Amino acid sequence: MAQTLGPRPLSSILLLSLVPVGAWLLVRPLLDPLPPLPAFHAALGLSIFAFIATVYLVPALGETFIKARLFGRDLLKTYDTPIPESLGLVCASIYILVLILFIPFAFSDVFVNDYENRSQHGLVVAEFPHQKLAVYLSSILSLLIATMLGFLDDVFDIRWRHKLPIPIIATIPLLLVYYAERGNTNVVVPIPLRWLFGTLINVGPLYYLYMSLLSTFSTNSINILAGINGSETSQALIIALSVILNDLLYLPWPFGVQIPVHLLGGHAEFKIGGPWGAGMAYGSREMVERHLFSLYFMLPLVGVCAGFLYHNWYPARAFPGDTLCYLAGMAFAVVGIQAHFSKTLLLFFLPQIFNFVLSCPQLFGLVPCPRHRVPRFDKETGLLYPSKAIFEKPPSALTTAILNVLSTLRLINLSKNPETGLPETTNLTILNVFLVNLGPMKEDSLVQVLISTQVTGSVLAFAVRYGLAWLLYDGNRR
Amino acid sequence: MAQTLGPRPLSSILLLSLVPVGAWLLVRPLLDPLPPLPAFHAALGLSIFAFIATVYLVPALGETFIKARLFGRDLLKTYDTPIPESLGLVCASIYILVLILFIPFAFSDVFVNDYENRSQHGLVVAEFPHQKLAVYLSSILSLLIATMLGFLDDVFDIRWRHKLPIPIIATIPLLLVYYAERGNTNVVVPIPLRWLFGTLINVGPLYYLYMSLLSTFSTNSINILAGINGSETSQALIIALSVILNDLLYLPWPFGVQIPVHLLGGHAEFKIGGPWGAGMAYGSREMVERHLFSLYFMLPLVGVCAGFLYHNWYPARAFPGDTLCYLAGMAFAVVGIQAHFSKTLLLFFLPQIFNFVLSCPQLFGLVPCPRHRVPRFDKETGLLYPSKAIFEKPPSALTTAILNVLSTLRLINLSKNPETGLPETTNLTILNVFLVNLGPMKEDSLVQVLISTQVTGSVLAFAVRYGLAWLLYDGNRR
Question: Same domain for A389 and A425?
Answer without folding.
Answer: yes
